[in-house]
Structures are given as structure tokens and as C-alpha cells.
Amino acid sequence: MTRWTRYTSRSVKLALGFVALAGVAPAAAHAGGVRQGTSPVSSVWSEPQDGYGFLDSAIEKARSSIDVSIYELSDPTLERALLASAGAGVDVEVLLNAAYSGTTVNGPAAALLAKGGVHVRFAASTQIFHAKYVLIDDRTAYIGTGNLVATDYPTTRDFWVADVSPADIAAIRTTFAADFAGRVSLGVPADGLVWSPGSTSKLVSLIASARSTLDVENEEMDSTPIEAALTSAALRGVNVEVAMSADSSWNSALEKLASDGVHVRELGASQLYIHAKVICVDCTGSSGTVFIGSENFSTSSLSYNRELGIITTAASTVGAVKRAVIADFASGTALHRSATAPVNSGTPTTPANGKGISITAFVTSIAPGAEDDLSAHSSKPGDSCSLSVRLPSGYMSESKGLGAASADGAGNVTWRWEIGPSTRAGTATASVSCQAGSNERDFTIT
């Protein structure tokens, strides 16, 4: 297909897309929001485990066209693949970000590719082009969260998916053609595509649709609507878990989320860098809804930049994202809601059944991931006792440290156990049972 034909076709579709866009209202952002449209995904790659060979291979197999929109490009292997395709007669177009020193960062790759016959353009420096996608033969769109910088691959958490929806492909192709020609506007909507500028309402509505769990990773946390949506979810009983790399820029926002009941964990400098931007809604096994894209949780990213993401219910994508985010969350350090609040140990509680068991010290408010303590006194020295904990979910805790224990010669006994890092917020009940009697106390998991 000639360049003129491709652009003529794209221009027609672009006009149609803008007509459709004019009639599309923003998604409602409310608790119990309606699910977004979703897109079929044929494959998913979790980085750094899977590597970027899939993109090299896709480029090598291209027969007619390759379109690349990327924030940063510095991957010699991929660049050689683009040059080889251009040399074989494939129409290769690469759009690079220019803002924030983009011309310097992307300059070497741009010069190399242009010299080898690739059609390279820098986007206008007045807008950040942060989208990360590769369109092959107008048939498959590879949409990711990662930049194409080879030195970052081994240490960075990112995801990529292959979108095969004809509607999505047409919308991406039309939007890319306009961007490449310098006619930048809103992205053409289709299925589960999430374009910026203007992605806030879709992501807020997706978060609002959660009923039981929300698993989130992002590089930034600087969007009031997103933060409010996460807090709202936690307050209505959704177990919200956020994993991010530690950065003082987001301390205030993350501490506020933690104080509102969101479970936040931060990864240190020696761990994987969380560059991914994903939301996993009600993900259990391979069931759920996932957003993967280039959008950071910031006003710039959601409202002004060129960004692209996708919402999908594809089982393989749900499973891959859930596994990776759970692993990252588990390896992070918990950001606690507040200091724990112990019961006054000098005022033992009255035995629940009038017998000889009193609770003498207890932590009444505690965050997931922290250690709890309970001390009791039995009227029977050396008494055989047991402690059980019913969680807010209704299940009995299986944490190490609970169970049987013996009182000392004075009748005192103490248990220490961990509140699981994924424990749902709410009211739990600790029950002490000894030969001398029993007692119980409610406490709050924040």
C-alpha cells in the first residue's frame, strides 16, 4: 500500500472517528459504576520476566507497515529490526516524544533510523507524547506501560498486551496518522481503548465498579480524582492494595490513602522499579477486569499528555497482572495508617461469662501487616488457654502465634501474631478460651 493511500484511508477514518467522539459522553464516576467497554487481548507479557523479544519478532515479521509511538527509544536490537524492515520495503513510521529533553534522549535513535529509511518525526514539544504502542500491518497493536529502553528492561516492572480488535486497530491507526501529521486532538474511541487527553473519567469509573478487590500499581500518585476514587472504594469495603516504588514526591498522597484504609506498600531502591500502570478490578484467578496503559496517576498524564491504555477481561491478562501485582505488594514495606492503640493494661476487662478470665492488654486498632498482642489473666495458675481470631471477612485467622498457650504461675498468658498484609479492613473478634472460662474483644483492622 502506498503512503498516499494509507494516509487517505486514515484521514477518512479519522473524520468518522471525530464524529463518533463528539457523541460520546464521559463515563459516570460513581460507586457501583458501570463496567467500561473491553477489548480482546491475544497475548500478555510481564516484564522483566518475559523480555522484549516478542516486539523484535513482530517487527521482523511485518509485511506492509509498522507504526511506533513511544516516549523513549534506546534499544539497539529493536532499532536494527526497524531498519531491516524498512530495508525490506515495509513502510515504517516512528513518532517520538520531544518534550522534556525528548529530542536529546531520542536523538541518537532518530538519526540512526532516519538514515536507514525509517520515516521519523518528533511530536510537538508543547505536548508530552507518553503513549507506548506499536502497530503491525494494521492488524495487531502492541500496547504497553514500558519505554523501549534496553537498559531499563532487567529492573523494571512493566506489562504489554497484543490487541487484535479490528475496531481498536482502526481507531489507533487513525489517531496515529493524525499525530504523525501534527494534527493532534483527542484519540478516536473504540471498545476498551483509554486515550489521554481525557482519561480521568474512564479510570475513575473503572475503580468505582469494584465490588471486592482492587489491585493497583503506578509510577505516580498525584491525581485528586484517582485518589478520591481509591479512598471511596476502601470506605465501601473493597480491599484496595497499592504497590509503588518509594518516592518522596508521593508521600503525602500515599499517607492520606493509608489513613483512609487503603493498603499501601512501597518497594525500595534495590527492588524492581514499579513503572507499570495497571488496575485490576475484582480479579480472582483469571476472572476480573484489567486496565493496562501508559497513564500515570497525575493531572498531566490524564488530562494533557498523549497516552494510550486498554481495558480488558481477557483471562490470561487478568491472571498475569494479578500474579505480578500480588508478588510486588508482598515484597513491599507496609505504609501504616497510624500508630496502634493499646487498651489500658491497668484496667482488666470483666470476664465475659463471669468466670476467671480477663483481658489485661490488647491492641484495639491495627493496620494489615502489623503484629498484634493480647494478654489475658486466668484465675487458675498454669491454665491451658487458646486464642482464636475471626476476621472481618468471617473467616478464622490462621496466623502463626494464635492457638494454644499456657498461663504462667501467676495465671498470665500472652499471644503475638501478624495481621495478614491482605486482610480486609473492618471489625475482627479475638476470643480467649481457658479452663477457667472465656472472654472476647472486638478490634479494628484499618
Structure description:
The chain is an alpha/beta fold. The protein contains 11 helices and 28 strands. It has helices at 3-22, 53-61, 76-87, 102-105, 107-115, 166-180, 200-208, 224-235, 251-259, 299-303, 315-331; strands at 41-47, 65-70, 73-74, 91-96, 119-122, 133-136, 140-144, 148-149, 156-163, 193-196, 213-217, 221-222, 239-245, 263-267, 273-274, 278-284, 287-293, 297-298, 307-312, 333-335, 357-362, 365-366, 371-378, 384-390, 403-406, 412-418, 426-434, 437-445. Strand 6 (133-136) and strand 7 form a beta hairpin.
Task: Name the descriptors.
446 residues, alpha/beta, Endonuclease, Chain A, Immunoglobulin-like, eight-stranded mixed β-sheet, 27% helix, 33% strand, elongated, disordered N terminus
**CA(first)-CA(last) distance:** 60 Å
**Whole-number average pLDDT?**
87
Count of alpha/pi helices? 11
The count of DSSP E runs of length 2 or more, i.e. the number of strands, is 28
Dominant shape: elongated
Give the DSSP E fraction (strand runs of 2 or more residues): 25-35%
Q: Indicate the structural class.
A: alpha/beta
Tally of separate domains? 2
CATH topology of the largest domain: Endonuclease, Chain A
CATH architecture descriptor name of the largest domain? 2-Layer Sandwich
Q: Helix proportion of residues, in percent? A: 25-40%
Rg, Cα atoms, Å: 27 Å
Sheet with the most strands, sense and barrel status: 8 strands, mixed
The top-level CATH class of the largest domain is Alpha Beta
At the fourth level of CATH, the homologous superfamily of the largest domain is Endonuclease Chain A
